[in-house]
């Protein structure tokens, strides 16, 4: 929210001085009006808070008001004018500036002698003389993101504050513009509330593969703004009957345009617990490390465009009865290793009733850090590959309480991929009604449409209806060919409250049957999640 004292021209211009200056000008015919810029030394400190001066000051033009200024001045040219006429012209110019957001910009008429019909005006451009900030973020974090131009414009400031309020680190902004004792200057008082410094959450969900234990307990911890520069440290620990996993992530903005670097590391150790394989000591160890750069190219109130560049190292090692053993195509002695570079483009647009988000990622396997290399004469997978992943999601509010969401994801690779780069279908995150990772393929297409209805009498409670569809096949050259398609229809309920508790339950009917010996809730199309987050 932004509040302000209205800084009319009288706060900038001494009207009595103007009257005294023009008392001798009755009956003068003006041929031109020229503005001079007021460059008083007392305004100099504001230069650090604002950008370059914008406007044609010699013509009394501020910002993009050239046509309006020209129209006002034209009314007083080539006609005989007096004191009242000139004061009216001055007031009309000052009013024009004010209604267009230049609330502390104004002109005055200095003492002068009219020669050849030329009238001189002095333009005092409005500026921010001081900015007082109260926030857990550093002052430079905020001032560096307020790209204000001279002269000061209230409308521009409001737009900048709304954009700043979209920052994921900021929850609320309260700003106030007040006059100072210096002509043409203003003071900005700004309070920026940030997200809680710490957060801890716990969840229980059946979102893992039943082969390693579907019921997943997860503990997540988060620390925000540790340095005052908007950084974030996140960590999580997950465990099932046959899985232990950790994830660590640290992100830090590098520039005022929010170029951000993120460091990621994850590791998991799993064992197959389903019979008849549980007695064979089938183990898997997966480790991934990476660095991600995200560069916002366009950041506007209703749209954004960003580029991402990531470098990763991913490794998977499998074993049987304690000995290295390859279960997937392309693995050597049970080991698969890839070091991909990924380039992504993200676009999002937000309207009053609809939103659209799209992302395209191109992944290319590099030769860095000794990736898995297959026999050149073989068509099998290795660490050298190129894959394309496209994602599009559209959401629309149909009423105040009813909205629909549709999403499409697709991955394509001309060559076969190692297991860590394949696309998985099945489970709560893709096609509900099936086991997690029911189908794992090189190339895949996923479509999902979901409708949500919020109950007015039960705040936080929603009912959900959905249809999911997915299809996948391996690239030519794979030992496993053929296309598999799965789809489902279902419903669910979701509940969330302000105290951090949330719950989800989905029941889906899958239209394709898969034979399994040990049935699981996922095989019956049931997916659930319970979570609680505490922020402080």
Automatic annotation (TrEMBL):
Annotated Gene Ontology cellular component terms: type V protein secretion system complex
Single Gene Ontology MF annotation: protein transmembrane transporter activity
GO biological process terms, semicolon-separated: protein secretion by the type V secretion system
Domain Haemolysin activator HlyB C-terminal, first and last residues per copy: 190-493
Polypeptide-transport-associated ShlB-type domain boundaries: 67-126
Keyword terms of this UniProt record: Cell outer membrane, Membrane, Transmembrane, Transmembrane beta strand
Range of residues in the leader sequence: none
Gene3D superfamilies hit by this protein: membrane protein fhac (3.10.20.310), membrane protein fhac: a member of the omp85/tpsb transporter family (2.40.160.50)
Pfam families: POTRA_2, ShlB
Keyword Transmembrane included in the entry's annotation: yes
Domain of life: Bacteria
Record carries keyword Transmembrane: yes
Protein name per the record: ShlB/FhaC/HecB family hemolysin secretion/activation protein
């Amino acid at each position: 929210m932004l509040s302000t004292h209205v800084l009319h021209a009288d706060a900038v211009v001494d009207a009595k001085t103007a009257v005294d200056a023009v008392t001798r000008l009755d009956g003068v015919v003006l041929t031109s009006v020229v503005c001079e810029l007021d460059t008083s030394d007392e305004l100099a400190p504001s230069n650090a808070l604002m950008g370059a001066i914008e406007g044609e000051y010699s013509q009394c033009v501020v910002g993009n008001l050239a046509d309006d200024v020209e129209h006002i001045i034209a009314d007083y040219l080539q006609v005989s004018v007096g004191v009242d006429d000139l004061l009216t012209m001055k007031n009309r110019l000052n009013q024009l500036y004010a209604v267009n957001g230049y609330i502390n910009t104004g002109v005055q008429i200095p003492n002068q002698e009219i020669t050849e019909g030329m009238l001189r005006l002095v333009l005092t451009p409005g500026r921010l003389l001081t900015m007082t900030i109260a926030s857990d973020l550093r002052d430079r974090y905020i001032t560096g993101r307020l790209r204000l131009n001279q002269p000061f414009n209230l409308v521009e400031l409001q737009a900048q504050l709304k954009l700043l309020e979209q920052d994921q680190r900021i929850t609320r902004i309260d700003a106030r513009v007040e006059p100072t004792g210096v002509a043409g200057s203003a003071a900005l008082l700004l309070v920026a509330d940030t997200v809680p410094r710490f957060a801890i959450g716990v969840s229980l969900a059946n979102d893992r593969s039943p082969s390693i234990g579907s019921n997943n307990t997860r503990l997540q911890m988060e620390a925000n703004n540790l340095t005052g520069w908007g950084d974030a440290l996140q960590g999580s620990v997950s465990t099932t009957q046959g899985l232990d996993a950790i994830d660590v992530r640290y992100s830090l903005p590098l520039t005022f345009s929010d170029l951000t670097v993120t460091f990621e590391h994850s590791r998991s150790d799993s064992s197959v617990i389903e019979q008849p394989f549980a007695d064979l000591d089938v183990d898997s160890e997966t480790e991934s490390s990476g660095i991600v750069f995200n560069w916002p190219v366009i950041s506007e109130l209703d749209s954004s465009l960003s580029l991402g560049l990531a470098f990763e190292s991913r490794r998977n090692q499998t074993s049987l009865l304690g000995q290295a053993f390859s279960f997937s195509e392309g693995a050597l002695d049970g080991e698969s290793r890839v070091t991909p570079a990924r380039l992504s483009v993200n676009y999002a647009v937000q309207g009053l009733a609809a939103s659209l988000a799209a992302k395209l990622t191109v992944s290319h396997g590099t030769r860095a850090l000794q990736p898995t290399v297959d026999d050149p004469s073989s068509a099998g997978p290795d660490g050298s590959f190129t894959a394309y992943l496209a994602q599009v999601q559209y959401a629309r509010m149909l009423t105040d309480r009813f909205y629909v969401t549709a999403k499409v994801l697709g991955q394509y690779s001309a060559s076969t991929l190692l297991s860590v780069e394949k696309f998985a279908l099945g489970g709560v995150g893709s096609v509900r009604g099936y086991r997690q990772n029911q189908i794992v393929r090189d190339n895949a297409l996923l479509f999902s449409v979901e409708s949500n209805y919020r109950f007015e009498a039960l705040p936080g409670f929603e009912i959900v209806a959905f249809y999911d569809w997915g299809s996948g096949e391996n690239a030519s050259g794979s030992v496993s060919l053929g296309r598999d398609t799965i789809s489902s229809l279902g419903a669910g309920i979701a509940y969330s409250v302000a105290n951090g508790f949330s719950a989800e339950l989905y029941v889906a009917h899958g239209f394709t049957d898969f034979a399994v010996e040990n049935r699981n809730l996922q095989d019956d199309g049931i997916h659930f999640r319970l979570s609680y987050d505490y922020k402080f």
